[in-house]
Amino acid sequence: MQLDLSMLEPVTRNAKQTQEACLTGISGEGIDAFPLPAVADLDSFEKEVVEYVKPSHGTTTLGFIFQGGVIVAVDSRASQGSYISSQTVKKVIEINPFLLGTMAGGAADCQFWERNLGRQVVWCRLYELNNGKRITVRGASKLLANTMFSYRGMGLSMGTMVAGWDVAGPGLYYVDSDGQRTKGQRFSVGSGSLYAYGVLDAGYSWDMSVEDAVELGQRAIYHATARDAASGGTASVYHVTEAGWTKVRGESVGELHYKYYPDPLVRSSIAVDPLAT
Which molecular-function annotations from GO does this UniProt entry contain (predicted)? Predict the structure, then answer.
C-alpha cells in the first residue's frame, strides 16, 4: 500500500501563484473574491477607517520635584474608548531602586521599553561597572529617548516620565514615542493631565513639606479622575529620595471623593434606609 505523504508538502505558494489566485478571484472565476468596499480610492479609505477602530488609551500621571525629592503619582484605570478594561493597572514601572518610570499611552509599549531599560546589560549595567556608579536619570532617559527615536513612525504610543535620584540630586524627564526628551520640574501626562495641571500648578511650592507634597500629588490625581472618564481606579503616590523610592499612598478614588468633598446630606441619605421610616 502506498503511503499518502501529501501532508509533508509545503502549503505556501510562491508570489506568482498567489497573484494568479487573487486575479482569478477578482475576475469571478474559480475561488470567491474577497468583498471590497465600493470606494474610489481603497488605500485612502483604509487609512481613514482604521482611526475609528483604533483603541484610545487614557490615563493621568504626574511628577514634580520639590525640596524633599520627587513625587510621582498615577491612577490605575485602563480603557479602550468607552470600555473600562481594568481598574488595577500598575502604571509605575520600577526600573531600579532609584529610578521610576510612568505609563501613558499604549500599556504594552510602555511596559516593554521601560522594563527593557532596567535590564539593559549592555547600557545600564556596563555603565555601572565602567564608572563605579549608577546610571544617572539623565542617562537613562537619554537611552530611552534614543530607542524611541529609532522606532519613530512604527506605531508606538507612549508618553512616559523617568524620575529618580542620582549624584546630581533629583531628576525628572519626559520622553515620548517620537523620541522627544524634555527635562522639567513638574509634568503631567495623559488624557486627564489638563485637570491635574490645574491642581498641581495652584498648589505647588518648592519648599513644601513631604506630607504636603504627597497630599498634592494625590489630590491632583483625584480631581483628574473626577473629570476624565478614562482615568480612575486607585491614586498611587511614590516618593523618591537619596535613599531610593518608596510607595507612600494607594487609595481608591471613590473613597477620596468623600475626603475632598464631605457632604453630610449625601452621607445621611446613604446611611438612612427610606423604607424603614
Answer: threonine-type endopeptidase activity
Q: Is the dihedral of CA 236, 240, 243, 244 positive or negative?
A: positive
Domain ranges of the chain: 59-260
Cell numbers at residue 223, please? 480631581
Residue percentage of the chain with pLDDT more than 90: 38
Beta strands in the chain (DSSP E): 61-66, 69-74, 78-80, 83-86, 92-96, 99-102, 159-166, 169-176, 181-183, 186-189, 234-241, 244-252
Query: Catalytic residue at 147?
Result: no
- Cα–Cα distance measured from residue 155 to residue 151, given in angstroms and rounded to the nearest whole number: 8
Are 125 and 192 in contact by the 8 Å Cβ rule? The answer is: no
CATH of domain 59-260: 3.60.20.10
Catalytic residue of the set 59, 60, 102, 234: 59
Q: How confident is the model at residue 18 (pLDDT cuts 50, 70, 90)?
A: very low
Q: Which amino acid is at 227?
A: R
Is-contact 106 155, C-beta < 8 A? no
Cell representation of residue 5: 505523504
pLDDT at 173 over 80: yes
Do the beta carbons of residue 66 and residue 213 sit within 8 Å? yes
Q: Is the pTM of this model over 0.70?
A: yes
Cell numbers given for 267: 452621607
Strand partners, 103: none
pLDDT, tens only, 161-172: 999 999 899 999
Which amino acid type is present at position 48?
Answer: E
Between helix 193-203 and helix 210-227 the angle, nearest 10°, is 150
